[in-house]
Give the backbone structure.
Amino acid sequence: MASWGFYGRRTELAEVQTLLDRDQFFFCAISGRRRIGKTSLIQEALRRKGQSLRALYVQIPDSDERGVIQVFEDAVEDILLDQDLARRTCGDFSDIAGLLRALWRTNFVTAIDEFQYFHRKALASFLSYLQLQVDDARAGDSRGLCGDTGTSRMVRTSKSTSWR
Ligand SMILES: Nc1ncnc2c1ncn2[C@@H]1O[C@H](COP(=O)(O)OP(=O)(O)O)[C@@H](O)[C@H]1O
Ligand SMILES: [Mg+2]
Protein backbone atom coordinates (compact mmCIF):
# COMPACT_ATOMS: atom_id res chain seq x y z
CA MET A 1 0.00 0.00 0.00
CA ALA A 2 1.32 3.43 -0.87
CA SER A 3 2.36 5.66 2.01
CA TRP A 4 1.04 9.19 2.08
CA GLY A 5 3.95 10.28 4.24
CA PHE A 6 3.95 12.84 7.00
CA TYR A 7 2.34 16.20 6.44
CA GLY A 8 1.61 19.33 8.45
CA ARG A 9 2.42 19.59 12.16
CA ARG A 10 5.24 21.98 11.35
CA THR A 11 5.11 23.81 14.66
CA GLU A 12 4.99 20.64 16.74
CA LEU A 13 7.74 19.00 14.71
CA ALA A 14 9.96 22.06 15.08
CA GLU A 15 9.41 22.07 18.84
CA VAL A 16 10.38 18.41 19.19
CA GLN A 17 13.36 18.89 16.88
CA THR A 18 14.57 21.81 18.98
CA LEU A 19 14.48 19.58 22.04
CA LEU A 20 16.33 16.80 20.24
CA ASP A 21 19.11 19.26 19.46
CA ARG A 22 19.53 20.39 23.05
CA ASP A 23 22.60 19.70 25.10
CA GLN A 24 20.71 19.52 28.37
CA PHE A 25 18.41 17.08 30.01
CA PHE A 26 14.87 17.31 28.77
CA PHE A 27 11.72 15.46 29.52
CA CYS A 28 8.86 16.10 27.15
CA ALA A 29 5.35 14.77 27.51
CA ILE A 30 3.21 14.70 24.41
CA SER A 31 -0.46 14.17 24.96
CA GLY A 32 -3.60 14.38 22.93
CA ARG A 33 -6.60 12.37 21.95
CA ARG A 34 -6.33 9.02 20.27
CA ARG A 35 -5.19 9.07 16.62
CA ILE A 36 -4.38 12.78 16.70
CA GLY A 37 -0.84 11.94 15.55
CA LYS A 38 1.37 11.64 18.66
CA THR A 39 3.16 8.48 17.57
CA SER A 40 3.61 9.81 14.04
CA LEU A 41 5.06 13.07 15.35
CA ILE A 42 7.67 11.34 17.46
CA GLN A 43 8.59 8.82 14.81
CA GLU A 44 8.89 11.53 12.18
CA ALA A 45 11.08 13.70 14.44
CA LEU A 46 13.37 10.73 15.11
CA ARG A 47 13.38 9.71 11.46
CA ARG A 48 14.40 13.20 10.35
CA LYS A 49 17.37 13.12 12.70
CA GLY A 50 18.46 9.92 10.97
CA GLN A 51 21.87 8.56 11.86
CA SER A 52 22.80 11.74 13.70
CA LEU A 53 20.63 10.71 16.64
CA ARG A 54 20.68 7.49 18.59
CA ALA A 55 17.27 6.61 19.91
CA LEU A 56 15.48 3.87 21.74
CA TYR A 57 11.78 3.82 20.91
CA VAL A 58 9.38 1.51 22.69
CA GLN A 59 5.63 1.20 22.51
CA ILE A 60 4.26 -0.07 25.80
CA PRO A 61 1.84 -2.93 25.22
CA ASP A 62 -1.47 -3.48 26.98
CA SER A 63 -0.02 -6.31 29.04
CA ASP A 64 1.52 -7.34 32.33
CA GLU A 65 5.01 -6.56 33.64
CA ARG A 66 6.54 -9.47 31.74
CA GLY A 67 5.12 -8.21 28.44
CA VAL A 68 6.44 -4.71 29.05
CA ILE A 69 9.89 -6.00 29.96
CA GLN A 70 9.88 -8.05 26.76
CA VAL A 71 9.26 -4.94 24.67
CA PHE A 72 12.23 -3.17 26.27
CA GLU A 73 14.33 -6.28 25.86
CA ASP A 74 13.56 -6.43 22.13
CA ALA A 75 14.36 -2.74 21.66
CA VAL A 76 17.62 -3.06 23.58
CA GLU A 77 18.57 -6.14 21.59
CA ASP A 78 18.19 -4.07 18.41
CA ILE A 79 20.75 -1.64 19.81
CA LEU A 80 23.16 -4.08 21.40
CA LEU A 81 22.74 -6.88 18.86
CA ASP A 82 23.11 -9.30 21.74
CA GLN A 83 20.07 -11.16 23.04
CA ASP A 84 21.68 -12.46 26.24
CA LEU A 85 23.01 -9.04 27.18
CA ALA A 86 19.63 -7.45 26.45
CA ARG A 87 17.93 -9.98 28.72
CA ARG A 88 20.39 -9.35 31.53
CA THR A 89 20.09 -5.59 31.09
CA CYS A 90 16.28 -5.68 31.30
CA GLY A 91 15.76 -8.01 34.26
CA ASP A 92 13.11 -5.93 36.01
CA PHE A 93 11.65 -2.41 36.06
CA SER A 94 14.46 -1.11 38.25
CA ASP A 95 17.01 -2.41 35.74
CA ILE A 96 15.14 -0.79 32.88
CA ALA A 97 14.99 2.61 34.57
CA GLY A 98 18.72 2.33 35.23
CA LEU A 99 19.27 1.37 31.63
CA LEU A 100 17.39 4.46 30.43
CA ARG A 101 19.63 6.62 32.58
CA ALA A 102 22.71 4.92 31.14
CA LEU A 103 21.39 5.62 27.65
CA TRP A 104 20.78 9.30 28.44
CA ARG A 105 24.35 9.52 29.64
CA THR A 106 25.50 8.39 26.25
CA ASN A 107 23.32 10.83 24.38
CA PHE A 108 20.48 8.51 23.49
CA VAL A 109 16.94 9.75 23.21
CA THR A 110 14.50 7.31 24.71
CA ALA A 111 10.91 7.44 23.57
CA ILE A 112 8.23 5.63 25.52
CA ASP A 113 4.98 5.50 23.63
CA GLU A 114 1.63 4.57 25.24
CA PHE A 115 3.12 5.66 28.55
CA GLN A 116 -0.31 5.76 30.17
CA TYR A 117 -0.19 2.02 30.79
CA PHE A 118 2.34 2.68 33.54
CA HIS A 119 -0.42 4.31 35.57
CA ARG A 120 -1.97 0.89 36.06
CA LYS A 121 -1.35 -0.60 39.44
CA ALA A 122 0.45 -3.66 38.06
CA LEU A 123 2.99 -1.49 36.23
CA ALA A 124 3.12 1.59 38.43
CA SER A 125 6.33 0.63 40.23
CA PHE A 126 8.17 1.61 37.05
CA LEU A 127 7.12 5.24 37.62
CA SER A 128 8.99 5.39 40.93
CA TYR A 129 12.13 3.92 39.44
CA LEU A 130 11.92 6.27 36.48
CA GLN A 131 11.32 9.27 38.73
CA LEU A 132 14.50 8.51 40.66
CA GLN A 133 16.52 8.35 37.47
CA VAL A 134 14.97 11.51 36.06
CA ASP A 135 15.65 13.42 39.30
CA ASP A 136 19.21 12.20 39.20
CA ALA A 137 19.63 13.14 35.55
CA ARG A 138 18.11 16.58 36.10
CA ALA A 139 20.55 17.22 38.91
CA GLY A 140 23.43 15.98 36.83
CA ASP A 141 24.86 16.27 33.39
CA SER A 142 22.27 14.78 31.15
CA ARG A 143 19.16 15.86 29.37
CA GLY A 144 15.91 14.18 28.53
CA LEU A 145 12.71 14.52 26.65
CA CYS A 146 9.54 12.78 27.43
CA GLY A 147 6.20 12.36 25.79
CA ASP A 148 2.70 11.98 27.01
CA THR A 149 0.30 10.88 29.53
CA GLY A 150 -1.93 9.65 26.77
CA THR A 151 0.78 8.30 24.58
CA SER A 152 4.40 8.96 23.93
CA ARG A 153 7.35 9.70 26.07
CA MET A 154 10.92 10.47 25.26
CA VAL A 155 13.99 11.05 27.28
CA ARG A 156 17.41 12.09 26.21
CA THR A 157 20.84 13.00 27.57
CA SER A 158 24.04 14.83 26.88
CA LYS A 159 26.38 14.43 23.96
CA SER A 160 29.30 12.62 25.46
CA THR A 161 30.65 9.12 25.19
CA SER A 162 29.20 6.47 22.95
CA TRP A 163 27.04 3.62 24.12
CA ARG A 164 29.48 0.88 23.25
N1 LIG B 1 1.21 14.38 10.32
C1 LIG B 1 0.67 13.30 9.78
N2 LIG B 1 0.74 13.08 8.45
C2 LIG B 1 0.17 12.01 7.90
N3 LIG B 1 -0.49 11.05 8.56
C3 LIG B 1 -0.61 11.20 9.89
C4 LIG B 1 -0.03 12.31 10.57
N4 LIG B 1 -0.31 12.19 11.89
C5 LIG B 1 -1.00 11.06 12.02
N5 LIG B 1 -1.18 10.45 10.83
C6 LIG B 1 -1.92 9.19 10.60
O1 LIG B 1 -3.06 9.17 11.46
C7 LIG B 1 -3.19 7.92 12.08
C8 LIG B 1 -3.12 8.07 13.60
O2 LIG B 1 -1.85 8.62 13.96
P1 LIG B 1 -1.03 8.16 15.23
O3 LIG B 1 0.28 8.83 15.14
O4 LIG B 1 -1.05 6.67 15.34
O5 LIG B 1 -1.92 8.78 16.38
P2 LIG B 1 -1.81 8.63 17.96
O6 LIG B 1 -0.43 8.10 18.28
O7 LIG B 1 -2.03 10.01 18.49
O8 LIG B 1 -2.91 7.70 18.37
C9 LIG B 1 -2.09 7.02 11.52
O9 LIG B 1 -2.60 6.26 10.47
C10 LIG B 1 -1.07 8.00 11.01
O10 LIG B 1 -0.33 7.46 9.94
MG1 LIG C 1 0.10 6.40 19.28
In short: Confidence is low (pLDDT under 50) at residues 142-164.
